[in-house]
Design goal:
Elements lengths: L10 H9 L15 H28 L5 H28 L11 H4 L10 H26 L4 H29 L9
Length: 188
C-alpha cells in the first residue's frame, strides 16, 4: 500500500512554512478547523463555565440545613474546578486570536447551562446535576465536531468532560444520599 503523502514533512519545508504567516501564532497550515467558528463555539463554552462558577458559588453560600456543611464544601470545590475550566477555555480563545467574552451582558443567553437557584439543598443538588448533564452532552457533541480538525480544542474539551462527568456523579451521589433512594437503575 502506497501513500501519496509522506508521514513526516521535509524539515526544510516545515521550517519554511513556520516562517510564513507568523502573525497567526499557533494557527499553522496544518490546522483544519474554522478559527472563527471555533472561537464562537468556545465563547459559548466560556459562558457555560462562568454560569457554572456562579451557580456553584451561590449554592455554597446559600446552602443551609443540618447536613449542608459537606455539600457546601462540594459546591465550593466544583466552583473552583469550573473556574479552572473557564480559564483554560479563555486561554484557548486567546490562542486562536479571539478575545474571551467575560461581559456579563447576555451571559445566560450565551451559555448552554442555566443559572437556577434551588429553594433548598435538594433542589440545589438537583439543578447542579441537571446542569452537569447538559454540559456533558454539549461537550460530547463538541468533541465529535472538532474531531481531528482541531485536536487541541478537542483534547481540552475531553479533559473538561472528564471533570464534568465526575461532577455529575458527585451530584448524583449527593442527591441519593439526601433523598435516601437510589436513582441509577440496578444491574439486575
Amino acid at each position: 500500500m502506497t501513500t501519496e503523502q509522506p508521514f513526516l514533512t521535509d524539515v526544510q519545508e516545515l521550517r519554511s512554512r513556520a516562517r510564513k504567516s507568523i502573525e497567526k501564532g499557533a494557527i499553522t497550515p496544518a490546522y483544519k478547523g474554522d478559527v472563527k467558528q471555533t472561537i464562537e463555539i468556545l465563547q459559548s463554552v466560556l459562558a457555560t463555565e462562568i454560569v457554572c462558577v456562579l451557580r456553584y458559588t451561590m449554592n455554597a453560600v446559600a446552602a443551609t440545613g443540618i447536613s449542608s456543611e459537606g455539600v457546601k464544601k462540594e459546591f465550593d470545590e466544583h466552583a473552583e474546578e469550573e473556574r479552572e475550566h473557564m480559564r483554560v477555555v479563555a486561554e484557548r480563545i486567546n490562542q486562536l486570536g479571539g478575545t474571551p467574552n467575560f461581559d456579563p451582558e447576555g451571559l445566560a443567553s450565551r451559555a448552554a447551562s442555566q443559572y437556577v437557584v434551588g429553594a433548598n439543598l435538594i433542589e440545589m443538588i438537583r439543578e447542579n446535576l441537571i446542569a452537569e448533564r447538559i454540559a456533558c452532552e454539549h461537550y460530547r457533541e463538541l468533541i465529535r465536531y472538532f474531531g481531528d480538525n482541531d485536536s487541541t480544542t478537542r483534547f481540552m474539551l475531553e479533559g473538561i468532560l472528564t471533570n464534568e462527568e465526575e461532577h455529575a456523579n458527585d451530584m448524583h451521589d449527593l442527591l441519593v444520599a439526601h433523598e435516601g433512594k437510589p436513582m441509577l437503575p440496578s444491574s439486575d
